[in-house]
# Entry
Amino acid sequence: MNGGVESLGSVNPYLSSMRRKRPAALTVNDYVEGILRGDVTMLSRAVTLVESMLPEHQVIAQEVVERCLPHSGKSVRIGITGVPGAGKSTSIDAFGMHVLERCGGKLAVLAVDPSSERSKGSILGDKTRMERLSLHHDAFIRPSASSGSLGGVARKTRETIVLCEAAGYDKVFVETVGVGQSETAVYSMVDFFLLIQITGAGDELQGIKRGIMEMADGVVINKADGDNIDEARRSAVHLRNALHLFPMPASGIRPQVLTYSGFYDLGIKEVWDMIFDYIAKVKENGAFDERRNSQSRYWMHEAIDEQLRMRFMNAPGVAEKLKACEQLLLSGKMTSFAAAARMLEFYDGLKGNGNG
Amino acid sequence: MNGGVESLGSVNPYLSSMRRKRPAALTVNDYVEGILRGDVTMLSRAVTLVESMLPEHQVIAQEVVERCLPHSGKSVRIGITGVPGAGKSTSIDAFGMHVLERCGGKLAVLAVDPSSERSKGSILGDKTRMERLSLHHDAFIRPSASSGSLGGVARKTRETIVLCEAAGYDKVFVETVGVGQSETAVYSMVDFFLLIQITGAGDELQGIKRGIMEMADGVVINKADGDNIDEARRSAVHLRNALHLFPMPASGIRPQVLTYSGFYDLGIKEVWDMIFDYIAKVKENGAFDERRNSQSRYWMHEAIDEQLRMRFMNAPGVAEKLKACEQLLLSGKMTSFAAAARMLEFYDGLKGNGNG
# Structure
């Protein structure tokens, strides 16, 4: 499009004046070179392109991501989840400062937060909650892409990871709220999945979704400070016993349970000893590469399935037909499989009519 | 087809003689009426049709299932899982005899065991392992359909449940081995999902797959007899503590942990008190109907997704193209999403050429 404006510029004064008002459009080369030399503004603008819904932005974004790909993959990716109120932002501030002081390098903090789950907990919404990290010149904090399906948001986050890694960020945190499907998405894009818990009423660690516990590579109990220390430790013991009943994970490393205080900066080193120790071991035993490969395959198949499903659901008339079939289904007039067969027949009919 | 043979019978002596050797083919009406009056032979033959891969059998089977549907749904469906060696067959024998003696009625015992998982544990392979039940005239024991994808086997089992219920079986057990994906399938077709455990080395309950614990509506520890009683009770305490850390299930009822001995018939009543109590409560609070409705929807969408995926995977050239894309993916030359986009473009090209 810009090319078109360019060539008409001298002929059409209206287009010409429009062009002058815009900042010079960046080429794929500009983005890639900027990112590779670690230019934060360029990185930010490229991430904005990745997040954009506009097809013309997506064309450039995809090329930038593809060109950055050979320079990516070298970071350690840590997923961090926990219910709202678990103190994720404060913890990430403490964790981030610790790893930057301890190892140097650069840290990117991203988030997966599909809009549908937005109301349940603010994700990186307020950078000021990461007081120290937001001022640190080696930290890049980027809130979640604002909208779209979980699959779409997950794709954008994974592409943003590629860009950050190409820009030299060798640690990536991906935050999510442990209330929906998004933690499965984050689990499937990181090397270590950390579950932040707090002690609740009695023994129960409240609000945690079924299944999350079994995804965790490590569990940490926050707010182990002041009067709360004993209860946090008791919860840790219970959790350790519980996790001991689960089978050994594919990594060959049993998840540990630690207590800490993000606010008072207590026990932070121990949490990261655990994580770094885990990463060293899985790099040694091959589980690290295996996990990344199976993640790549997973996302490819997820993307294909999502596309096939979306095309089906968006085909004209399918939504109405589906509602009708669901009625027959729930009133016991049709089996699930007969209903599915009827839906697919309907879909084939559409394609036969040239609508596919 | 049979109609065709019929009309040609007097003209073509070969076809005519073939026809005479076959037993008279049953009509849909024959099957349905037989099933509705509780004829076990008819039920068995209908299940064989459901399991058949032949399209002409499937046509009849689907009609029979559809006609039985209004007479189904009235049983209590119990899923039973556990690792090989947990004593599932002996337990099912004891459980089945208990519920038949306690409540009367009729019991169907089915299994989900996709062939790929077959070698890991024999499912109902040896009816003689259910010594008492296999001789009981109110029990109908049917091994798993012998082959096919998990989705296919699950469909056949769900349809078999419909037939059994229409034949007056008011209790249905569905057995599965807790080692693959099949327990998710069984979980999604029953009203109560029972996990059978045994005590292993030390604390750990070995062999159980991640995620199963969180699906269980109740956990029972088998072989709590003789020298093993104390260890079984200790395991139960640990499991209770562990389950207490999980969030409250949608049913509003926390899973209980009990010990029993299938072989020595100890504690069987208590297990069934727990299950019947659960069923009474969820029928009262609405969770029973809610679960069944969401299962129906789940299976419809699963069937649609599976079909869409299968058509894609079976399209000419897709398998080879997928392999090539996976190579590019794993060597870091392409993102998962770019690879997926390329695959879908390829698929669209096929359809454009009239292959869709």
Q: What stands out?
A: Chain A touches chain B through 64 residues (CB under 8 Å). Residues 72-288 of chain A form a domain with the Rossmann fold fold (CATH 3.40.50.300). Chain A has three domains: 2-67, 72-288, 299-352.
